[in-house]
Amino acid sequence: MSGPAPFFEREGPRWFSIPAHRPFVDDLARGLLNTLEPLGPEALPRATVLTPTRRGARALADAFLAVGGGRALLLPQIRPLGDLDEGEPPFEPGDLALDLPPAISSRRRRFELARLVVDHGDKLSFKPGPVQALELAKALSDFLDSCQIEEIPFEDKLDGLAEGDLAQHWQVSAKFLKGVLGAWPKRLGSLGLIDVSERRVKLLRALERQWSESPPTEVLVAAGSTGTAPATADLLRVVAAAPKGAVVLPGLDEDLADSAWTQIEGSQGEQHPQGAMKRLLDRAGVARSDVRAWVADVDSRGRWRRRIVNEALRPAEATADWLAQIAALRAEAPGLDPIAEGLTGFSVIAARAEEEAAGACALLLREALEDPERTAALVTPDQTLARRVMTRLQRWGVIPDSSAGAPLAAAGSAILALHLARLVEEPLNPVRLLAFAKHPLVLGEDEASAAAMLERKGLRGAAPGSKDVLRKRLKDAPEALALCDRVLAAVDHAAAVYADGFAPPCRAAQALVEALEGLIAPNRLWAGGAGECLGALMAALIQDGEPLPDASPQAFADIFDRLVNEETVRVGGATHPRLRILGAIEARLVRADRLVLAGLEEGVWPQGAPIDPFLSRPMRQRLGLPPPERRVGLTAHDFAQAASAPDVVLVHCERRGGAPAVESRWLWRLKTLAAGAGLALPRRDDVLDWVRALDAPAPYAPIGPPAPVPPVEDRPRKMAVTRVEALTRDPYAVWARDILKLYPLERPDEPVEARARGTAIHAAFETFAETFPDAVPADAAAVFEKLYVDALVHAGMPPTALAREKALAREAALWVADWERHRRTTARKIVVEAAGELSLSINGRPFTLTAKADRLEPTADGTAHILDYKTGAAPSQKQVDTGFSPQLTLTAAILMHGGFPDLGKPTPGDLTYVRVTGRKPAGEEQVRALAGEESAAAATKALDGLSTLIARYDDPAEPYRSRVAPQFVKEHPGDYAHLARVFEWSTSGDDGEGE
Known about the structure:
Elements: E1 15-18, H1 24-36, H2 43-46, E2 48-51, H3 54-67, E3 77-80, H4 106-119, H5 130-149, H6 168-191, H7 196-213, E4 220-223, H8 230-241, E5 245-250, H9 258-262, H10 266-270, H11 275-284, E6 292-293, H12 300-312, H13 322-332, H14 338-343, E7 346-351, H15 354-368, E8 376-379, H16 383-393, E9 401-402, E10 406-407, H17 412-425, H18 430-437, H19 448-459, H20 467-473, H21 478-495, H22 505-519, H23 522-525, H24 528-544, H25 553-565, E11 568-569, E12 579-582, E13 594-598, H26 617-623, H27 630-643, E14 648-653, E15 655-656, E16 659-660, H28 665-676, H29 685-695, E17 718-720, H30 721-729, H31 731-739, H32 753-771, H33 780-794, H34 799-824, E18 831-842, E19 845-858, E20 863-870, H35 877-881, H36 887-896, E21 907-916, E22 923-929, H37 933-953, H38 982-986
Parallel strand pairs: 1-5, 1-6, 2-3, 2-4, 4-5, 7-14, 8-12, 8-13, 9-12, 13-14, 17-19, 20-21
Antiparallel strand pairs: 10-11, 15-16, 18-19, 19-20, 21-22
């Protein structure tokens, strides 16, 4: 680095450049400090420096302190030209801003445009709803910004916009744009406001005129901008021509061959990293050779890195002579391989997927912190990846200064508000109601037990059909009922504005806020960065949301959900001073000792050309708008700047979202250039090994099925026939339920169709038989249908399913009526839900077998038929014969041994499943054993099988294994598969089974 540079001694215009491999803000601050400080203590604070972004302005202020050795300095005026938040003007140059109306806020603008979208919806091929209008308003905002930044008077060009051979969609789009954009200036005028972009351009133009007529006499420097907007480019030209003015460009490629430089034009030039600066210099009438170096560069390694990166990213038409350029580079340094020199400190990581890439980035940043003098930064346009890296860094207690922030949608207060908005749509949705009631902001310190009771008694199982049903469930739990009433009152308050099913979103938002503040103290609800961000969003909806069209509860919830998911909470608090996570634009001026460039996949970095819903490429060309590829060129410049740093690691994923990913074109070009030189980009596979080792479990050892061995005295000595069936198929379920007493809980909003159908058919048959024990009435079908439907309602079947079941119930009832008449001709009486039991001695120990028969039909010949109702598939003959479904046969054994006292010891009759569905056929009998010897033999065989089974489990070494009959898994998945960790051992291969 040379001494004080006489930057302002020569006549203007003064154009400078800082090479891409140099730390931009450090060199800028050092040059200004070395130049101005010798002129006196007032020289530096009188200077003005314009930066492209707010973060760039802060970085420059930090750089002045760093190069000043930490001593106190009066800094120059540092002001950003762009990347401004709402309410922060682009420059506000004195009284010039007083002549312009204030700018409309971004949210108010979007809401007003959404209103215009709805008003002109008749010009579209569909009628936009509130959410669609909001999305189209965002696209309209982008279109207006583009036209205003490029200073294109689009109003006069809309008439012939869709002329030519264009699809019907674009014809419709042109008519719609003409209607909406014709009304927009009038609406802005009535509000007394102006678009932000238009105001910014007008201010920059006014400043340009003022500085052209009365140039500033003090030092004026514009640094880091590439002048992509015409107004900014013209202002830079004026700055460069000021008496003490200068423009400092970031990374102008002074070594690119003249032939390649001239080829940076047209569509390919739009995508080139030097495209923006070439357009800027051409507009200013400055030759590239007239741009001087801001600093004397003595870093040969950095110079070769910059040369390699720029060569790799040269225009596609100019890549044909890469081998000649490689030879020319090597000829410039005969005793040195400049390609190998430039690749020193440069490495690549190819991760399998996003999670592995995030782990690699976190480890690379953490590795840099081992040296207390080093700084590190992650640069990526992928905010999701940036947040993953932040999460990974937290394991070491490291919190970087991140521009990615955190999504508002993940904040507790926002989640709560979204739940309430959705509850207005579905007030009794058990899952959402439970999530809302158990939210930490809603739940008081002493209400944990109340929330548990609300879940257990009120919201598990079938969804309550009404608030009265829910309150009835909680009548024995007053604390849970009080909590429930508080929550329902908040839902009712938020829903009160929808008197006729629709409400203005501004009033819906106000009601939502009132409901939340009625539940939660405002100092808790709006606390922290997330609370402030949510509060600002709600205030904008209330104050500026009046133009939005009326919305239903569902539409408002969708609008609110969309707005919340677009918000980012800026992470505050203490952050690590040597660690940053930056976006691609922010990294243009900021440099660290190590840069990790991640997200290098096509579609991520660079992003694909945006899809405009209103304008085709020919339409954009007629308007004079830049092509979508221009954005690719700007991001290419940012990549080239960052990739020229001394220590750079490029990270890309082989798969994204489970699908193969294509590595970035820039990374591919760098690899190709290195291969042409007979080299390869260095790899950091060791970092991937660290990632995999860091999160790797212990050496993989497949687990086997569980095989608990409880003490013999704890094993059941009394079992129902249904539990015997469970012991036959899945002994582990018997261990969990009958020994450990772990009873399954119903899920909130449990689907009840199949269960309700089975419960209802049993209840209907029982009530019908008890009401008509002898003769079947003439209107039996109607009676049974009503009994069945009433039982379905009582079982909790939702109305949507009930409409279908009523049709099936009618068909089922007709079949049941005929079936009952037929059965009554042979049955002496009908016995329903009869309880029986049989005491046995197995291995010298007592054992009791119990059963509850759905229906027994004693006959005059001394037999008793056994019937079991089914609404689903009945067990097959083979399952019954092999003992896997012993319910009927064991019930027959109890019957023939006198286990049903009121019936004596009859001979088992037919063992029958009665399947009732209402479909075709509406019902059917499926006999598994005929009356007499066949059923008696089946009963004896089942009883012998039971004795053998229980005797086996009397062995202290016999375990209760999981799923010993896996062929029934699909039919009977069971309630304890998760407890038995079935998925783990059933998919781990043969090595793990049976252990």
